[in-house]
Amino acid sequence: QVQLVESGGGLVQAGGSLRLSCSASGSIASIATMGWYRQALGKQRELVARITAGGSASYADSVKGRFTISRDNAKSTVSLQMNSLKPEDTAVYYCNANAIYTLGKKDFWGQGTQVTVSS
Question: CA dist 53 to 29, 40, 50, 83, 85, Å?
């Protein structure tokens, strides 16, 4: 099992910045990809950004050029630097870890952290 704990959400004005962090514990050696998803009120959860163990990152088109995902394998952490925030970025942000086991893959989720961007 993998446990994920997020921190860093909050309220910010449009154009501002926030940094989210997520710390993993447990069976961390099994973790392959880590990432951030978000879910706005009344909408489905969507991928924001993810990063492989080797550091290859990918982003949703809506955040490209504004958000940066980073990962520290030694500390088992993943972070999301969010710049030029927009009101439409308002959502609950969830840390995700995709772990690979002998019998298959499994997703683990953090508890979520609220990000609110005021206009």
Answer: 10, 28, 10, 24, 27
Token pair of 32 as six digits: 């392959």
43: amino acid identity, one letter: K
Query: In the prediction, which pLDDT does 102 show?
Result: 86
DSSP letters, 84-111, are S--GGG-EEEEEEEEEEETTEEEEEE--
Length of the chain: 119
Q: Work out the burial of residue 16: count CB atoms within 10 Å of its CB; fewer than 13 is exposed, 13-18 middle, 19 or more buried.
A: middle
Q: How many angstroms separate the CA atoms of 63 and 46, rounded?
A: 12
H or E segment and range at residue 13: strand 10-13
Structure tokens at 94: 């969830």
Residue-wise pLDDT tens digits, 12-40:
999 999 999 999 999 888 899 999 999 99
